[in-house]
Write a structure and sequence with these properties.
Blueprint: H1 19-29, E1 39-47, E2 55-65, E3 72-80, H2 92-105, H3 135-144, H4 150-164, H5 169-177, H6 185-193, H7 198-210, H8 218-230, H9 234-247, H10 253-265, H11 269-282, H12 288-300, H13 304-316, H14 323-335, H15 339-351, H16 358-371, H17 374-386, H18 393-405, H19 409-421, H20 428-441, H21 444-456, H22 464-476, H23 480-492, H24 499-511, H25 515-527, H26 534-544, H27 549-562, H28 564-574, H29 580-593, H30 596-612, H31 616-628, E4 636-638, E5 642-646, H32 652-671, E6 679-683, H33 699-709, E7 715-716, E8 723-727, H34 728-737, H35 740-745
Parallel strand pairs: 5-6
Antiparallel strand pairs: 1-2, 2-3, 4-5, 6-8, 7-8
């Protein structure tokens, strides 16, 4: 056998008993020098055996050091000439395949171990780029140290030293000062990306900054700022970018995107706006990532117009937003309660071929929930299912909120069952949303089932809000025994009474005329140091309209303790002689101090008190003042074809007063020759309402009886429940037949 590159000693071989292939490998292996350097070598040789005819072989071997088994071995490949092809036996490749597997798993002996750092890995070289967002990717090259790359081994040792020392500048500087040579920028980038602790990364950066032999660049600054962003270190991030500018290092788009996003994460949107505006001064042109970050920053800063303007300018310059940009725009519209803007962005997104994901659909559903559009919500949900997206807990929660606000109990409960079928996790908030809906629309049986499920659940136990909804439900239905029992269970469960519970109990006790219990509940509220609000005061005022003279003073004293101005007005209404200007002044004071949601109920109850004191004229004065102060502004609705009187939000006595005022208005229009439309409507609704002190019957029933007593032309509509209709001719005839003094003066 002739060898072109010198002879060598025979090395160990694990390949025996494998026929011609084994014989060939063992013979070839004997020609490889045991001291051969790591690397690849080639030479030609001739080989002849009893089983393999003479072949002109080209031998190629590579010395490999395995870092895991510590075995140094040779990988041999060979090929033969065309004229001396082995045709009757399997190819060498086929014969070597099973041998390679055995050779690959062979265990090394002690004499075969070598220094790991002298080997050369034959695996595919890894890129030095590390994804800073992926924890596994960031630590894998240094932690695993696969292969025998000396540079990666050095990085691994450095990383372990830095991780094991204290995260102080002194400790980290000692480790870095012990380095025999200054690391390269590529090595620094890889090391920095491996840090999970911003303190170590920042100390490493400071060491590099002080090292005169190291040339700082934009990439190093960017990587450091990204790590500081994770730790929400806004001050240090801003310090670094200012240092870049001082050192004459040009920031790029990644720099500004990092700075802007860090400001957003630290809840400093105005700082993000400030740095974005400096981009143009420095000469850096924003990219899509920067545009997306700035749209979000503008919206967080409350500068919605600026965000929209930036978005439109970027689109005009050819920018095509990605899914994240569209999602950011829709979240901005969501925060602004702008359904039309969110819908336009959603449609534009689909028109550009960007497929909405689950986050986008959930954002749209949350926006729809805010503006209370149940039909649009249902369409979005069906569309989401059609495109193959699986709804999650957020999806179901948004839909349930929408249905609950719209009081669509059937849809809400059906959706809740579907949610449980898909094994979405229920929570207490979701149950409370449904219980609140049941309390609003009077679904007692359904609420009892939901509350029982909560009691039997391990993760959705009833809380204070759950008990409050159940008490409110029972109280609104007049089921005081059930409400009292639930209140006792609430106290036993360790929950203290709250304002809503006390308000519900007072309303219920008042309707069944248990006035002593009203006073007891009021004293409980004071003992618990709960601050009453206007709604609670309105509940006491509603109870006052039901009191007889004996109990009147008890409830009045309660009102006087929490609202002295209202107490003064009540006393004034009881006086025989009253100056209208003084009444106007007191009413204005009470309404000015009251919240918007209780101003109309306050006026309703005060007018009811006037009728209780047998003062209908004073009731009409209060109604006129209420109209003057903007309380009753939505009662009379006029169009060319019809006029409508809306009484839905009024008690029965106030409805009578409003009707009398409307009749006066009709009579004046007729007297002045104004055109009266062909149709006149009165809308009472078809149920009780919480603003009325009279819950014995619905307003539509009571008012229908009143219209019949007046022999009026208004007839109850057979097509529209809660509506009364009269034609123009019938109404004019009835107005002429009435006594003019009653019609004109009311």
């Amino acid at each position: 056998m002739s060898v072109k590159e010198g002879q060598g000693t025979t090395g160990r071989s694990a390949l025996t008993g494998k026929g011609a292939a084994a014989e060939l490998i063992m013979s070839l292996a004997s020609t490889i020098p045991s001291t051969a350097n790591a690397g690849t070598h080639s030479y030609h040789t001739h080989y002849t055996s009893s089983s393999v005819p003479r072949s002109n072989l080209k031998l190629r071997y590579t010395c490999v050091s395995n870092p895991h088994t510590l075995k140094r071995f040779a990988v041999i490949s060979c090929s033969h000439g065309e004229k001396e092809t082995i045709s009757q036996n399997p190819s060498i490749t086929d014969q070597l395949k099973p041998l390679a597997l055995e050779f690959r798993h062979a265990k090394p002996s002690a004499t075969e171990t070598h220094d790991l750092n002298h080997g050369i890995s034959q695996s595919k070289p890894r890129s030095d780029y590390v994804n800073g967002r992926n924890h596994r990717a960031s630590v894998q090259p240094m932690e695993r140290e696969r292969g025998s790359n000396p540079q990666m081994a050095w990085l691994g040792r450095l990383k372990r030293k830095l991780d094991s020392c204290k995260p102080t500048q002194k400790a980290i500087f000692e480790v870095l000062d012990s380095l025999q040579e200054t690391p390269s920028p590529k090595t620094v980038t890889t090391t920095m990306n491996g840090f999970q602790d911003w303190k170590r990364a920042y100390c490493f950066f400071q060491w590099l900054r002080k090292n005169e032999d190291f040339q700082m660049n934009t990439v190093i600054y960017n990587v450091t700022m990204k790590i500081l962003r994770k730790g929400r270190q806004w001050g240090r991030v801003e310090e670094l970018v200012e240092d870049m500018l001082d050192q004459g290092i040009d920031p790029d788009n990644i720099t500004f995107s990092t700075v802007i996003s860090c400001a957003r994460q630290c809840n400093l949107p105005r700082k993000a706006v400030e740095w974005f505006e400096r981009m143009s001064e420095i000469g850096c042109v924003p990219n899509g990532i920067t545009y997306t970050a700035m749209v979000d920053a503008y919206s967080r800063a409350g500068q919605v117009e600026e965000a929209i303007d930036l978005y439109e300018r970027a689109r005009a310059n050819g920018w095509i937003p990605d899914i994240k940009a569209f999602s950011t725009m829709m979240k901005m519209y969501n925060l602004a309660w702008d359904f039309d803007g969110a819908l336009y962005t959603f449609q534009e997104m689909k028109a550009l071929g960007v497929k909405p994901n689950l986050v986008v659909y959930n954002t749209m559903l949350d926006t729809v929930a805010k503006v209370e559009k149940p039909r649009e919500a249902k369409q979005l949900f069906e569309e989401m299912i059609d495109v193959g997206l699986r709804p999650d807990q957020i999806t179901f929660t948004c839909l349930l909120r929408i249905y609950a606000k719209a009081k669509r109990g059937g849809d809400a409960l059906q959706l809740f069952e579907k949610m449980k079928e898909q094994e979405c996790k229920e929570d207490t908030i979701l149950y409370n949303t449904l219980l609140g809906m049941c309390a609003d629309i009077g679904l007692v049986e359904e609420a009892v089932i939901l509350f029982k499920e909560m009691c039997e659940s391990d993760s959705c136990k009833p809380d204070s809000r759950s008990y409050t909804s159940m008490i409110d439900l029972y109280a609104s239905r007049g089921q005081i025994e059930e409400a009292s029992r639930m209140f006792s269970e609430m106290m036993e469960a360790g929950f203290r009474p709250n304002l809503m519970v006390c308000t519900s109990l007072i309303q219920c006790y008042g309707r069944i005329k248990r006035f002593d219990d009203v006073v007891r509940t009021f004293n409980l509220l004071l003992d618990e140091r709960i601050s009453p609000d206007d709604k609670f005061c309105g509940s006491l005022l509603s109870v006052l309209t039901l009191c007889e003279k004996k109990e009147f003073n008890k409830i009045h004293e309660c009102i006087e303790k929490i609202n002295p101005e209202l107490s003064v007005l009540i006393k004034m209404l009881q006086e025989e002689d009253i100056i209208l200007s003084a009444l106007e002044e007191e009413l204005e004071t009470v309404l000015y101090q009251a919240s918007d949601e209780v101003r109309k109920p306050f006026c309703n109850y005060l007018i009811d008190l006037c009728y209780k004191f047998n003062s209908p004229e004073r009731a009409r004065n209060l109604f006129s003042l209420g109209t003057f102060f903007g309380v009753y502004t939505d009662l009379q609705i006029k169009s060319n074809r019809e006029w409508c009187l809306n009484l839905r939000s009024l008690s029965f006595k106030v409805a009578i007063t409003a009707f009398d005022d409307w009749i006066v208005s009709l009579s004046k229009s007729l007297k002045n020759g104004k055109e009266i439309p062909p149709l006149l409507w009165i809308h009472t609704g078809h149920g009780n309402h919480k603003g009325s002190s009279d819950q014995s019957s619905s307003l539509v029933t009571l008012f229908g009886t009143h219209l019949r007593e007046l022999d009026s032309p208004f007839e109850q509509s057979t097509e529209r429940v809660g509506w009364f209709l009269a034609t123009r001719d019938a109404a004019i005839s009835w107005l002429h037949s009435r006594n003019s003094s009653i019609v004109i003066t009311g």
